[in-house]
Amino acid sequence: MSFSAISTTTTTNAGSRDNQYSLQITARGPYSQSSTTTLSPLGSPHMMGFQNTPLPEMPFLPSDSLDWGNQGPPPLDYARSPYATVPLPPMTSGRMEINPMLEYTPAPLIYYVLTQGPASAALDTRRRIAMACSFDQPATSPATSSLIIRTSFSTAPVFVERFGAAITVRDVLTKVYEHLRACAYEQMHPRPTAGLLDPYRQHDMGSEAYVQQGMVRLLGNKLRWAGLSPSTTERDVWILHVR
Fold first, then answer.
1. Are 52 and 37 a contacting pair, CB within 8 Å?
2. Model-level pTM greater than 0.85?
3. Cα–Cα distance for residue pair 173/137, rounded to 1 Å
4. For residue 181, what are the contacts with CB-CB under 8 A and spacing of at least 6?
5. Lowest mean pLDDT among 8-12, 29-33, 70-74, 210-214
6. Residue 58: count of CB within 10 angstroms of its CB
């Protein structure tokens, strides 16, 4: 469909403020209709826009019609500490249980000196249940791909993650050791400020001994694994015990 202007008519009263312009537009097509649009001169108080037609009025909606008042933030709990954390959503639909190998008991199944690394961990073969245990077993029941552990030697939690697969007992021991080692190294070897002519230097040969001393200091001479117990304040969070 195309349009063409047929004629334009202008009133000749130049001194009047009511000059109007008429433009007849003819549509060419199988369903064409002719229409006449009246335009006001530029500067006229009646000038509303290109089409010279009043804008549609927006319907008035009362503020309570959108129910915004019920969508505000929850009230503040002044009884809690300002440093309290926001609880995370549950990682499983039911209650999570830790593998008996990792459970905190007076006689843990694992003999593990944290400063020696997970390769030194061994099962207590004097106990019959240890014969059916393996470090490659899932760390939790039901199995999960992430676990959060809090320790006494660090304010930051230990995040045990294994994307696409269930974390194992070995994963837990490894992540705890890596976290302990990282905390000790940061305490004993703070990262220097590196400039253009002073690149970050590598550790020297004595760094390993310093890291070992740092781990012992962080653990307070309690170097052996004692197990994990559920947190009493956070869901699906476990507390590391040493002895």
1. yes
2. no
3. 12
4. 211, 215
5. 8-12
6. 6
